[in-house]
Amino acid sequence: MIRARAGCTCVAAVALWLGSASDNLHAQANAENPGGLIDLGALGAIMLQAPAAAPQQVGPRSPVEFSFSAGFATDYIYRGVTLSAHEPTAGAEAEAVLGILYASASVARVKLPSQPAAEMSWGGGVRPKLGNVQFDFGATYYAYPNEMPPPGVSAGIDYWEAVARASTMLGGLLRVEGGFGYSPNISNTGAWSKYAAVGAGFDLPGKMLPAEISASVTGSVGYSWFGDQSPALGGFPLPAYLNWNAGVTFTYKNFNLDLRYSGTDLSKENCFVFTGDPAATPGGQINPLTNPQGLTSNWCSTTFVAKFSYSFN
């Protein structure tokens, strides 16, 4: 999300989670877990917008189920904002499920103003089901080891957030999902963060595709808004914004290819305020409080991303 300062708005691009809109909601998707079929806004460089293929179970079923995914992407986009400075990224994630309980962890390459070695996360929660509606209630802690915060900023950008979401099928064809996320101190800026999003998706008919290949079309839209940052960072709220994404995910056995457009309605000036892009350029509209130099950034612009990953249980 961001780390802003009064005189020179410096923000560490990180953002909050939630299943929907621009890019991600946290939860592994498989044949027995309808939740998470649409990526509603979770961090994680290789999170998919559609379910990965679930391998066939061999031998007796274990009470604890494990899943793992690893891959790379042309960019790490989180709710419309790049966390890798529009450079390629790689990551991996793992999850363990026992009944309705789950625990997860992930690691990904990032390129942020505070220069962390990577983004790491640990989380868990419950996924109860009521009728044909799948719920997900959880919390995740995000850590950015070996950071070098900007001058005058002693703390890093580690933070945690809680999320709630629900998903279901309509007419046996359309998957719909909505959710809400909250962090009391997003990116350790002192500002609370809220995120609401909705998404939808459907599978393409098998007759339209080659044998053993499936495809899902998904899209989502979300809205983020924030409280005031700490006085040391300027005391003003981070800019609220709308984000969106749309794309298609192809699956062949355990391999997945996701092709997606995403974007936000942030101006280039507010994009700098939100991200603290160290490569920002002058020439934008000056705001005496949030952007006195009129610096602009393209970290929030419309972007096409290709993700390739391998998943197995």
Topology record:
Blueprint: E1 64-73, E2 77-78, E3 81-82, E4 89-98, E5 101-108, E6 119-126, E7 129-130, E8 133-143, E9 159-170, E10 174-183, E11 193-203, E12 213-226, E13 241-252, E14 255-264, H1 268-275, E15 303-312
Antiparallel strand pairs: 1-4, 1-15, 2-3, 4-5, 5-6, 6-8, 7-8, 8-9, 9-10, 10-11, 11-12, 12-13, 13-14, 14-15
Which properties best describe this structure?
1 helix; single chain; 15 strands; 313 residues; twelve-stranded antiparallel beta barrel; two-stranded antiparallel ribbon; Outer membrane phospholipase (ompla), Chain C; mainly beta
Summarize, please:
The chain has 313 residues and is mostly beta strands. The protein is built from one helix and 15 strands, in the order E-E-E-E-E-E-E-E-E-E-E-E-E-E-H-E. The protein has one helix spanning 268-275, and strands at residues 64-73, 77-78, 81-82, 89-98, 101-108, 119-126, 129-130, 133-143, 159-170, 174-183, 193-203, 213-226, 241-252, 255-264, 303-312.
